Every structure is written in structure tokens, then in C-alpha cells.
Protein 1
Amino acid sequence: MTLKRASIADLHEIGKIEADNFTPEDFGLSIASLRYHLKKNTIFIIKDESGVIGYCLWLTRKSYYRLYSIAILQAFQSKGYANMLLEYSLKQLNGKDLQLEVKTTNLKAISLYEKFGFKIIKKLTSYYPDHIDGYLMKRSIA
């Protein structure tokens, strides 16, 4: 298993993971958007011998990083890869506060984030399509 910062060479494999996990209604990103984020933000990937099997996208803000997306190919889910990817990225981003938004119904993701020290800060009413609520979660370095 290899964990590293993504490069432009990984673009299309990341795009396949995005399409495997998100629809446009779920804010799925296009190849053009992913290319932009590879240049302007931070994407970490996890690879095995078959190729890229997961990624996480961190948006760079002035005083913190915001986790925009984390996804693992469906065939590789529930095997600890998201855990490995999140742990690796937190080590790489050491030194700034972190935050994210997550659907209140995504208990698996909430549990993962809490395991790594994220705390629910507030409820975001009707934040997602179809009036689904979200949580703002933060992890502070202080």
C-alpha cells in the first residue's frame, strides 16, 4: 500500500473514484474540477498494485484546511483504507486546524472523523440537497 500526495498523472484514476462514489447531485467533481484542485489544493491518494483506490481532497484556507471529500472505490470499502488515508493526511497537514461538513445520516463517516479527534460544532439545517442536514466538524491543534 502506498500513501502519497497526488499528481496530475493520478487525475483519471481519481476521477473514476469520484464517479464511483458521487453523483452530480452529491456535489461530484468533474475531471476539470479535479485538475484544478490538484493544482490549487491538496489531494492525497492510497494505491495498491492495481492503482489508486482512494483519495481525499483538502481545500487550503488561510488558517485551516477543509476536508472537501474522501472516497474509496466501492470494491475496497470497509477494509480500513479510509482510516489509513485520513491518518496519513492528518500527519501531512499537521500545524493547522481542520474542518469538514458531513451529512447527519452518514454515521460511518462521523464515527471515523470522531476517531481522529473531530468534534461536532454545529448542525447545518438543510445543508445538502433534499433538505438533508449536516454537521460542521472541527479538529483544533490547540
Protein 2
Amino acid sequence: VVGLLLQSLGHQVSFAENGLQALQQAQCMDFDLILMDIHMPEMDGLASTREIRALKGPRAEVPIVALTADVMNVAVDEAVAAGMNAFLAKPLQRSQLEAVLPRKRRSAN
């Protein structure tokens, strides 16, 4: 649903099935924004975010936004501590998504 919403706003979207795939994509592709679920198999979103932040160069600085159904205060604190820039709770409203989107769009393969 979020992917369709992003596409309707004119963005290109890449998907990862788990945190490890998200990390691998972040290592080899340039993104304007990463929406990261906190709870994923293989590697959770917090660990993936920490690994992305440890990369060298501008790929380490991509904005990462938590997108999760976990709305407990501890989840927000953990997301920020891992290096996420913002926190969005599901179900997501279009206006919330638009608020975190960068103004500039770049193609993501």
C-alpha cells in the first residue's frame, strides 16, 4: 500500500523483504529516503539502520524513517538511537508520508 502511494506521488520504489536485503540495497544504490520497518526477519530494521549508518560516504547519511505498527515509546527511542531520522506509525496517512519525503526525487532501481 505504501509503495502504491509513493508511486502515485511520482516516486520510484524498491522493496526489501528483510533488513539484510535493505542493507545490501543501501550499500549499492543511492536512495533519497529509506522507509524501514523495525520488525523484519534475517536482520531487524534497527540493526539494518545501524549498519547503514556505519557505511562510508553519502550512503550512510540517507534519511531513514521508521515505518511500523509498534507505537510504544520505547520503539521510538530505539529507532532514534539506531540512527533513524523520523518515526511513522501504521496505519499511515498520506499527509504523514508527504511530510517526511524529500523535496528532490532521484530514481531508485
